Amino acid sequence: MKRGRKTLFALLLALVMTLGLAATAWATEVVPTDPFNLGLTITKIVEQTGDVTPPAETFTFVLEDVVNEGEPKRDLAYYGIELLDDLTISTAAGTGTFEETFRFTLPTSGFVEEYWDRVANEENEYRKTFLLKEQNGGKAGWVYSNKSYYAVFTYNISEQEKGLDVYVSGDATSPAEFTNTYTENLATVEIPFTKTVKLGGNRAPGKTDFTLEIFDIGNGTEANYKDVTYTAAVTTPGAGSYNGELVIKCKNG
After folding, report:
1. Three-state SS string across 173-188, please?
2. Phi, psi of 233 (to 5 degrees)
3. CB neighbours (10 Å) of residue 251?
4. pTM of full prediction above 0.90
5. Which of 1, 32, 64, 191: disulfide with 131, CB 3.0–4.6 Å?
């Protein structure tokens, strides 16, 4: 009987230990939100200043190290900062406002103390500053933004508080906005023509609008010439000869 009790007790103990191990395993699978993640939001504004609608495009931004004169400039990794996204914004064809938020992971407090700049008169406050700019892609028709902002990472070790703020000048925080303009004007050909209206009966012709049409040119369908537009119209108030103009516009190249 005693042997049976010992066996039952051993089985119960094994079951409790198994449940305990399972609970521990389940607990370790819960992954909390990474407290070191910070976001930087950039707004891209596309404007049209010519005849042609801006095409879809990808714009690239850079974070340039801000250091004292004579000191070498380092990349983000040197300061333990990891960029989790490509620092680019892709826009659709046309004008508009496009926005993206880019994520960063910061290092541990010990790393910050060694590599970041300590804030004056603040024993446990550290910061690292970068200059946020847009790369000049050099693509035809585009004028790239020359604006720049200070992107400042902060880390308060005592409070374990981290931040990322954008400054346009001094202490004035500002959204990071970059405006690009696209200019492409259509090539224009103007061909004058004369429309003559003759009286064919006893009744004088009234006011009439005439429109010329371009067709049967042997060069394919209209879809092949979607970048070509033309206008050719003239209004005749009665019999006589009237001057008009055929205006053809097309993209260069």
Report:
1. ECCEEEEEEECCCCEE
2. -140, 150
3. 14
4. no
5. 64
